[in-house]
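Format notes (please read before filing issues)

Several people have asked whether sequences and structure tokens are stored in separate files. They are not. Every record keeps both together, in the order shown below: the sequence lines, then the token lines. Line labels are part of the format and must not be stripped during preprocessing.
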Amino acid sequence: MVQATPFLLVLFLALGAHGLQGTKQCNLAGHWKNDLGSNMTIYEVKENGDFTGKYLTAVSTSPLEIKESPLLGSQNLTNLSQPIFGFTINWSFSDSITVFTGQCFVDENGKEILKTMWLLRSHAKKHGDDWKAT
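Then the structure lines:
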């Protein structure tokens, strides 16, 4: 029984190393485009997980001209292969802010995909209009 233990350990280490070889790390930095045609660029993700970037939406209910808007975000650092993150966009062309939260996945073909949820808050002129501002 004592002789089998080192063999099992070596086999486990070999199987574990084989599983790690194909793992690709998802990197948030770069240019992203969603299915509606909006464009986002995330600059460098800093060592603490913070990042900045810009967002140009392809859709808006604002009557004003759509303009590129700054974003500010943070990535959780506990799982770097498929990280979770969040960011805020302060829209340059309207009195609203959107927050996004999501996760970056790497599919079976090695393609990076962002899955997000968002919440937009517009300015309400009075307390009674609060219900339609989010």
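For reference, the curators noted about this record: The chain is about 15% helix and 40% strand. The chain has a mean pLDDT of 84.
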